[in-house]
Amino acid sequence: MPSPHEDDRLPVKMLNDRILVAIGEVEGERRSTGGILIPATAQVGKRLTWAEVVAIGPNVRNMEKGDRVLFNPEDRYEVEVRGRDYIILRERDIHAVAAERLDKGRTGLYL
To answer: Do strands 18-22 and 49-56 pair parallel, antiparallel, or not at all (unpaired)?
Structure first.
């Protein structure tokens, strides 16, 4: 029987409409476009977060690995895989997708 540490090396496959994403920046403090530091305590209301898609389940239809997605950070499950922290979301929890391939149709908003 393999030890728990050996299981960390096994491949991970997302199921159903699940999406594994990685957040690039640490949540909390951020800087405005003018360079002003905004502490995490100053955030008012709900703020959506961008993350990069690392893996998708077979029933995900509107995004691909490498896309950036916008989601509510309160609607998430955190998981550690091979020493890195990720977030698992459902496709219905995604508010927007940003990807180079979407530019081909030239439709939609430019964020």
So the answer is: antiparallel
Domains, the chain, in order of start with CATH, read 4-104 (2.30.33.40)
Rg of the chain, C-alpha, whole Å:
16
- Residues 18/90, Cβ–Cβ less than 8 Å: yes
Reduced to 3 states (helix: H, G, I; strand: E, B; else coil), residue 101 is helix
CA distances for 45 relative to 7, 13, 20, 48, 84, angstroms: 40, 35, 25, 10, 28
Q: What is the pLDDT of residues 55-101, one digit of tens each?
A: 999 999 999 999 999 999 888 889 988 888 999 999 999 999 998 87
